[in-house]
Amino acid sequence: MKGGNQTAVTEYVLLGLHEHRNLEVVLFVLCLGVYSMNVLGNALLIGLNVLHRGLHNPMYFFLSKLSLMDICGTSSFVPLMLVNFLGAQRTISFPGCAMQMYLTLALGSTECLLLAMMAYDRYVAICQPLRYQELMSRQTYMRMAVLSWGTGFANSLLQSILVWCLPFCGHNVINHFFCEILAVLKLACGDISRNALALMVATAVLTLAPLLLICLSYLFILATILRVPSAAGRHKAFSTCSAHLTVVVVFYGTISFMYFKPKSKDASVDKIVTMFYGVVTPSLNPIIYSLRNAEVKAAALALLRGGLLSRKASHCYCCPLPVSRHRLGCAVVMTFRGLKPLKFVSCSCCRSTEAGGASAPHHGLHPSGTQDDKAATIGNTAGHHDKRESNKACTDS
Fold it and tell me: Please, what are the averages of pLDDT over each run of 10 residues along the chain (397 residues)?
């Protein structure tokens, strides 16, 4: 934005739904409830990812970053929008508007890329299970996350610079709930063809390209699942990616409806659709993952029962014994060709208990969420190393 524009426009007026006062009161109550559910639900997913050892894998790492993104994205505009609904304040400062536009655009772009990274993770887990630890090592998925965030924020910085370089001729009334980039561009009194081209290219690269990668990943996943001989095996394999697939459909379905639907004669309808995309969609992710993912449900139940924190602090993942008393421990797993462990298996203490007719051991999960018989066999073989000495240690405890 040029210097004259910055001195002429120090704040912007957000119209919202000022013509429908009664509707604003209803939307205030609904948005406050949905926003609270969004923050609490996504914060719970982040907390479970940190506390529960069974969720320490790339899929849940990406899920926690998606939850963090949803919290930050909605928090960048919803609180001010709620104040706007009450009619207490309908203005936003120029720096506040610039930051709001930057964050909403950056986090939206990043979410598209992150969903594509999660699809690749599911592809490797199902189609290349024995190479999962090699292809999805900690260093790899950390780089993938940094690339997603860096690309999204760099694109938003470029778009913001192009917008604020335009002349605005003192126009400061934004016909929206927040400083959305298309609403801000309507205030410009100069040529915006360069901005339109930049937005079109960014949309193709950061929205459509990730969608194409997601579709290709699931085509390979579907082909692999259909080759599984048993119906139970197919169901188990598909269940590991059903939650992510549901999130993708909701996310891109909402975007498609918002941008490709016929333009409404009443601008208020378009605003409400945009608000649904920005407020409601992020709050659905915790619900989807908690309802369609057994590991998340198990971790949430453990947290509610109060055993998760104490288990993480001083106990083995599957046994009540302190970690220091286990010779092998639940995290001692099979090593495939010198790589990191492919699968968590029960410790020797649990297996000896099972042999004696007591409760069944806890078995961890392969990163793909499926039980691989070959990995289990090799894992059990590795777990029986120095079995006599390990059983003695468990007996002494």
Answer: 54 82 86 93 88 82 91 92 80 91 93 93 91 91 94 95 88 87 88 91 92 94 90 83 87 80 69 84 84 73 66 41 36 35 40 40 40 38 39 41
pTM tops 0.70: yes
Q: Annotate the chain with three-state secondary structure.
A: CCHHHHHHCCEEEECCCCCCHHHHHHHHHHHHHHHHHHHHHHHHHHHHHHHCHHHCCHHHHHHHHHHHHHHHHHHCCHHHHHHHHHCCCCEEEHHHHHHHHHHHHHHHHHHHHHHHHHHHHHHHHHHCHHHHHHHCCHHHHHHHHHHHHHHHHHHHHHHHHHHHCCCCCCCCEECCCCCCHHHHHCCCCCCCHHHHHHHHHHHHHHHHHHHHHHHHHHHHHHHHHHCCCCHHHHHHHHHHHHHHHHHHHHHHHHHHHHHHCCCCCCHHHHHHHHHHHHHHHHHHHHHHHHHHCHHHHHHHHHHHCCCHHHHHHHECCCCCCEHHHCCCCCCCCCECCCCCECCCCCCHHHHHHHHCCCCCCCCCCCCCCCCCHHHHHHHHHHHCCCHHHHHHHHHHC
